Amino acid sequence: MQGESFYWAHRRSNQMSDKPIYVTQPFLPPLEEFTGYLEQIWKNKTLTNGGPFHQQLEKALCDYLGVEHIALFNNGTIALITALQALKIKGEVITTPYSFVATAHSLLWNGIEPVFVDIDPKTLNLDPSKIEAAITSKTTAIMPVHCYGHPCDVEAIQKIAQRHNLKVIYDAAHAFGVQCDCGSVLKHGDLSVLSFHATKVFNTFEGGAIVCPDAKTKHHIDQLKNFGFVDEITVDVAGINGKMSEINAAFGLLQLNHIGAALGKRKRIDELYRSLLKGVKGIRCLENAGEKVANYSYFPILIEEDYPFTRDELYQILKDHNIFSRRYFYPLISEFPMYKSLYSANPNNLLCALNASKRVLCLPIFPDLNGDEIKKIVSKINFGRKS
Length: 387
Ligand code: T4K
What we know:
Elements: H1 4-12, E1 21-22, H2 32-44, H3 52-65, E2 69-73, H4 76-86, E3 92-95, H5 102-108, E4 113-116, E5 139-143, H6 154-164, E6 167-171, E7 179-180, E8 183-184, E9 191-195, E10 208-212, H7 215-224, E11 229-231, E12 234-235, H8 246-277, E13 283-285, E14 299-303, H9 311-320, E15 323-324, H10 351-359, E16 360-363, H11 371-381
Parallel strand pairs: 1-15, 3-4, 3-5, 5-6, 6-9
Antiparallel strand pairs: 2-10, 7-8, 9-10, 11-12, 13-14, 14-16
The structure holds ligand T4K.
C-alpha cells in the first residue's frame, strides 16, 4: 500500500464534468415499439390477474429459457417468499451470507431461521463442502444463490439434499438465461426464483418468476400468488398478492425481442474489460464457474493485496470521477442487525465471504455502456494510465 498522499492525489485528479456512469442502466427498447402493447391493454381493459400478455410472457419465457413451467410474479422477493410457502419450508434453511439481503429476508418472512454457511472463494457461491456440518434436525432446505449469474455446484448440492432429504430452492435472481452442461441452470433444485427488476439482465420494470418442475406445482404457486383462490368463492390457503400486471408482462415480451442483442453487447463489454484489466497489478476478474452460456449480468473484480488502494478507496476514486461502481455484497447479510446475533453469523465461520465482501467491486456493465466509457473506467483503476 502506498502513502496516503498518493490516494489524495489520485482523488484530486477528478474531472466531474463527465456524465455519470452507473453500475447498471436498464435496457429500454425504442419507446414507439411499446405503444402497440399499450393500445392492446387499453382496448381489452385487462390490466392484471393473469391477462393475455401475462399468459404470453409465461409461454415465451419457457421457450426462451428452455424450461417447462414458469409462474410470473410482481418481484423476485415475493417470489422467494412464495417458493418457500409452496414447499412448506419451516425450521432452518442453509443459505449464503454473500447475497442481496432479500435472500435471507424471504426466510425471516416465513419465520424460518437462516443458517449461514461460507462461500467458495473462487465462485463466491455457497461452498458445498461446508454445508453438511451446518445441518441439524431442524434443517429442511438449502437456499443457494447463483451469485452474479455464476452457477452453483448444483450436482454437489443435489447429492447433499438427497442424502439428508432436504429441498433446494435456488435464488436465481442473477441467472436469467444461464446454461450449464445440461441446459438451463434454472432446472436444478426443487424451484428456482428469478428477478426481473430494472437492474437485471432481463427486466419488466419490477418483476420475478418461479421456475417450477411440473404443472401441479405451478398450479399451486399460481393459487398462492392470487390470495389462495381456487375459484370465485373458494380460498384454501393464505396466499398473497404476487401477480404481475399486464403492463409489466407486455414490457417483458418487448424486452424478449431484444434480449439476444442486449446479451451480445454485455458479452463484448465483459471481453473488453478483461483484456484492458489483464495487465493491471492487484486486480483480478472473477472467472467463469463452469457455465456454458453466461449472461454477463455483473462485472465483479477482486482488489488484491498488491493493488495500491483498498477496495473502498478505489470505490471512492471512481465515485469522484462520476463512476458509480457498487460493493455488491457488502456488508454481508449476516452483518445486518436482524441476523448478526445468529449463531451461524459468527464471522470466524464465514471467512471467505468476509474476504469477498471487503475486496469485491462490481464495475458498470449494461448494454449501452460504450468502449470509451470502459476505457475511462479502466484508466482510473490503472491510475490514469491510458489503456
Ligand atoms: N436475490 C438476489 C440475489 C438479488 O440480487 C435480488 C435483487 C433479489 C433476490 C430480490 O429481487 P427483487 O425483489 O428486487 O426483484 C438493486 C436492486 O434493487 C435489486 O433488485 C438487486 N437484487 C440488487 C442486487 O440491486 P440497489 O439498492 O443496488 O439498487 P439501486 O436503486 O441503487 O440501483 C443501482 C443502480 O442502477 C443505480 O445507481 C442506477 C441504476 N438504476 C436503478 C434503477 C432502479 C437505473 O438506472 N434505473 C432504475 O430504475 O439494489
